[in-house]
Automatic annotation (TrEMBL):
Cited PROSITE patterns: CYT_DCMP_DEAMINASES_2 (PS51747)
Gene3D superfamilies: Cytidine Deaminase, domain 2
SUPFAM superfamilies xref list: Cytidine deaminase-like
Source organism of the structure: Ascobolus immersus RN42
Segments forming domain CMP/dCMP-type deaminase: 15-184
Protein name, as recorded: CMP/dCMP-type deaminase domain-containing protein
One of the protein's GO biological processes: nucleobase-containing compound metabolic process
Position of the signal peptide: none
GO molecular function term, any single one: catalytic activity
Superkingdom to which the source organism belongs: Eukaryota
Length: 207
């Protein structure tokens, strides 16, 4: 299978993708202070109705959490809670579903598929903390298959790349996403703003 496409949207004309990324930026501004981590915002959107399915920002959930991680975990939690309520079970609390569990949450799911994920910074492909990467989580979500072979996530839109201040090997998310069949879209015109917000609490600015 050939890698999925990569697209570069120019700064103008403004598109709904720019609007969604602006929304993700407004979420990134809510990130609790951390002098050692980026501040990122993420949004899961229906490409057909533009409805917002879930959102998240860095450190929103307890622990050293990332924006895309929070966005996906909140989405899974909502779907799992609705399913549990329908079967009379107790509402699951803040569960971090592991590999292999996510597909089962979506058995019987009647919501939308082939969602778009917007993130102000390209998903992390390595974490200093050794915690699970957002790249890994997004690839997992893309493997959740629904009716007619539709996948849960189809495209990832990014506002800016990641510099090498934390991870010296660089970020290899674009290639892995594309190999996993996920289109990568770089949204032009918001790079500087996305980067400035990402760095807003960092002690050490880029040299
Ligand atoms: Zn991450």
């Amino acid at each position: 299978m050939a890698p999925a496409e990569v697209h570069h949207l120019p700064a103008t004309p403004s598109t709904p993708h720019h609007t969604h990324l602006q929304h993700a930026l407004s979420l990134a501004r809510l990130c609790p202070r951390s002098t050692t981590a980026f501040s990122v915002g993420a949004l899961l959107v229906s490409p057909t109705s533009s409805a917002i399915i879930s959102d998240g920002y860095s450190r929103e959930l307890p622990g050293n959490t990332h924006a895309e991680e929070c966005c996906l975990r909140k989405f899974y939690g909502t779907v799992a809670a609705a399913k549990a309520a329908a079967t009379g079970n107790l509402e699951p609390k803040d569960v971090d579903y592991q590999d292999g569990q996510v597909q089962s949450i979506f058995e019987g799911y009647t919501g939308e598929w082939e969602l778009d994920l917007y993130t102000t910074m390209v998903p992390c492909s390595k974490r200093m903390s050794g915690l699970r990467t957002c790249l890994d989580r997004i690839v997992e979500a893309s493997k959740v298959i629904g009716p007619e072979g539709k996948r849960l996530i189809k495209r990832v839109f990014c506002g800016c790349g990641e510099d090498d201040r934390f991870v010296k090997e660089g970020n290899w998310a674009e290639g892995i996403l594309r190999e996993a069949g996920i289109e990568v879209w770089w949204v032009g015109g918001l790079e500087n703003e996305c980067r400035n917000v990402a760095e807003m609490w960092l002690e050490k600015k880029a040299e």
